Amino acid sequence: MKRFFVLASLFAGAASVRSAPSLADWADPAAALARSTVPLSLAESFLDAQAFLPVAAHREALVAAGKTEGANRLRVLEEIYAGNNVGALQALELVEKKDAWLQTRRALVEGLVERGRAFTEIPDDRFVFRTPEADAFLVSYARPALDGAHGRVEDFFGSTPSAPVIIEILPSVEAYAWASGIPKEKILRTGAVATVRFNRVMALSPSVPALGYRWIDALVHEYAHWHIRRVSGGLCPAWLSEGVARYLEIAWRRPEGFRHTPHAKALLTRAALDDGLIPFSRMEGSFLGLENAERTDLAFAQTSDAVAFLVKEFGVEKVATLLASFRQQPRAEVFSHTLGLGEAELEKAWRDSLADLTEKPTDNARGALGPVWVIGDFDEATLVGSAALEALRAGDRLLKQSGAAAAAQYKKVVEASPDNGVALTRLARAHLRSERPEAAEELLKRAIEKNPDYAEPLVVLGEIYYEDGRYEEGQDVLQQALEIRPFYAAVHGTLGRIALDVGNFAAARSSLRLAVRFDPTNEEWRRALSGMPKNR
Ligand SMILES: [Zn+2]
Near ion ligand 1, which residues have CB within 5 Å? Predict the structure, then answer.
């Protein structure tokens, strides 16, 4: 069967466009700014690593020396990087010389202010969310997840920043492309849907891709980058930065900690057995530069595995020390000083640790899906691959009349790709039609395990649990579905009905309102909503 995934690697676009300050600059930032021939550019690279104090000190020194023009320009940058668009616009008014620097900054800040008008701001002392009104409900899911991730993330970085991180959700690919500075074609081609720019975590609304995406993971991933830049001064090697971000992105939602998805594990195993691993030296700069999505996903699998190895062999505290050392010592010395072995030796030790991998890398060949990144109308059926598509369509046509007849067709698809999420979910639906929920449940659990980025089996399983009165299990899988497709009406519909059954009217009301908003044609949810007791 032809292995099908549209795109394996989301949120690969974290590389900063700005070069970081040098070690000599970090040794005394205020002095570096004072002697620099390009002080604004250097100031911006300090701000990019959240070093606000030396920039403010330099500005005050300029004011004291009567150099207000330079000071006012610094003020503009400080406001942008503090997330204060309107403040930046006001600071721009004070700049007198109308040169090219001013023109580009003005265009940028006016754009930020303009787009900011559409945002609802939902702050607290750790995270300030800025979302379009339509996406504001996401915050109630994202905040607990990020708060949960916060503890783990903090261990990794050994310190907490004083200011909250700003998280901006952009409503369209165009808006996200403009704000992130990543060209639209590159976003569409690579699925680079989240990044850090101007000290803000920016992400594309999960309403945009047809099958959603792991948007909370993406926020955690970028939140990790935001920290890495702060503690390392922007000097952490790309392989380590991406490895740590991927490691944490997965670890936050698993009590047992980091574990590869079946898809990533299969890629890593195959590469290790075939001598096809990518050297870390090929990962400088951005992962977006790797040949294709599969290579990018392999790079993430490798580097996150190397970070898991680091944590296992040296402990989290050593990793924190390592990250913080990049702004103090040359890269060539950081590894040997902190770990007692150099960067190349570490890579070799990690490669040696893969010698135990013997598992046959069959998961992808069996049709398991990686993340599916598509914009616009999309037919999920095509994810089973062209060879099995005809049988799947035949099953779809039969489903209304006979569960057994549909199941016979779907079984052919499952035979061709036994781990494919679409095939397993369709067969489960056919079993449900024949009143065989136990058989359906088993298939759905396999679909979820093998296709962790595909929401559909979670949604169907949630409905089974609801029908069976297993409310807690139902809520659990539906919450997981929201981590991928928060704009899916059926998820909110079932959550609303569960809340209604257990007498939690406030939760029922908000879930059912979302369900009706995303699918206004569903009469059942409408009735449930209008039939609810008032004032409760
Ligand atoms: Zn990244």
Answer: 14, 242, 245
